[in-house]
Amino acid sequence: MSPTDVAAVAPTEGTAAEVAERGGDVAKPTLGPVAPEPEAKAAEHATHPYLPRARGLLLSEMRLVFRRPRTYAMLGFLAVVPVLLGVALRYFTSGGGGQDGGGLEFVSQVTNNGLFLVFASLAATLPFFLPMTVGVVAGDAIAGEAHGGTLRYLLVAPAGRVRLLLVKYAGLVAFCFAATFTVALSALATGAVLFPMGDVPLLNGDTIAMDEALVRALLIAACVAVSLLGLAAIGLFVSTLTGVPVAAMATTVGLVIVSAILASIPQFHALHPWLFSDQWMSFGDLLRAPVETSHVVRNIEVQAAYTLVFGAAAWARMTDRDVTC
Amino acid sequence: MSTSTAVRAPRTTATRQHDVADGREPAVVTRGLSKRYGRDRLAVDGLDLVVPAGSVFGFLGPNGSGKTTTIRMLMGLIAPTSGTAAVLGGPMPGAAGTVLPRVGALIEGPAHYGFMTGRENLARLDAADRTADPRTRAARIDEALARVGLTAARDKKARAYSLGMKQRLGLASALLRPRDLLVLDEPTNGLDPQGMREIRALIRSLAADGTTVFLSSHLLDEIEQVCTHAAVMSRGRLITQGTVDDLRAAVRGRLVVETPDAGRAALVLADLKAVSVQTTPTGVEAELGDLAPDVACAALVRADVRVRSFTTKGGSLEDAFVALTGEGFDVAD
Fold it and tell me: What is the value of ipTM here, to two decimals?
């Protein structure tokens, strides 16, 4: 860095032009001893109490989430899963269904209709891969800012603690949808390339046209994304507890595993309806005619409840937290 | 640090102090401000701090004396255990939303998103301030970057910045808008000597515009050069606060006279009520106490003492600081 004299750096032409363009809305570049009068300062603070939010913190948060190299890596990984699944089904299966049930009931259909790769891929990634990426982003949400020291600068900006928390959750919601749609779109493309596309047979034997099936695929992807929102709220809460992002990520992903273990033990059946992952596979109901909505609605209720409870816990923790790192 | 002239020309700081008293309410007022970590570690203990508006206020203290904890309470990052703090007239942390847009802060070193450029980092912080006008954002960012001499590196990723450049970027974020108060915690940390000079010049020019600057530093030299007022903390307590000149005056220096007439000089100084007068192989030494050096010099010459040199040592802020906080090198617990 060249030791330019701070007090005597001329404004770049671009700056001056931009200022002029805005009709002198900005205080003139205050270089060196020339600076706005105290009255001008007071006026600036007074005239813009609340401004349009479109270019505000929410947009900045979206950039933070989606321009981070780690996010590309995770989305890229998620995009590869359907390709691997498609290639395996196309070239390495010896025909015939006979797959074990659960979420993979779609798999046997894929070779007949490429669109089923979307459902099969979502069913394959929902139990672990999708929650893992959500756990990483959610665990990092506040803890990462605290660890990097940027949390204190956001708070003295001042971002406002509740506002920051809401914006962080909005960023997580966006990531849940982005991750899910990455899987779905990759699966759709792979399915179209590797398998025949056409009318779609539903799980109960009826057949619907391709365009209606695409609408259902969209609904199913949305349903899967919503399934992740409860976990996102849990991760956000965990993230407010610590300044060590890896700990928050590991805890959140660990809770996914704990939930899966609890769900697999029949003796805990009384607990099962309350697990955030209990109704994750309900999206299959959207492939029935008529659509069976009770489980889907139950899933949305569970996710909303988790969001409320852990959102409130995160709020309580965040507003009370001593930011010392 | 030693001063070789007994009688100083009045410092610019002294004249500036009068401009400071312009009737504005103090930038910072704390009353009995305390912070307790855990059961019995009192990081800050009953702090009564007043930072006059328009001052350049040096906040001094050894490592672990509670400076940063105090700054965190002033910025609403941590809640006090007891006591109150008011910043620019608003109680903290309650009035953070209305007060902090008028405050620029550099707290415990800079922090940035490494994968973003310098400009993008500033844009995020500016977006976080909902009272900042997004239409003027780009212009204000470029201006702040120019002010800290970072224009050439503004589109580089922050992770590629050197420590000094990160420090400059942190300062730029404090200067994104015209501020009434700047809180700068060790602002010249990691800067080369040239950079330190630039930052000091910047602080002076900001202060000349009427911005109150609250400057925490270990560099007594720095405080002495730029500050009008100072406070000294030790072990969580405020030991003293006042104008830099008053603090310095509290530590009268030591007088060293080189003369072949040591015996006579010692008698003259003893008559003048100088303390602990000692003869040395080259002359005589004494503590000045309340005695003014010019009076002592005149008296020696009147008594026909052949003075080869006449020096006062000490009386610097460093002496004041050491006198107040002790010589110990260990971190206060």
Answer: 0.79
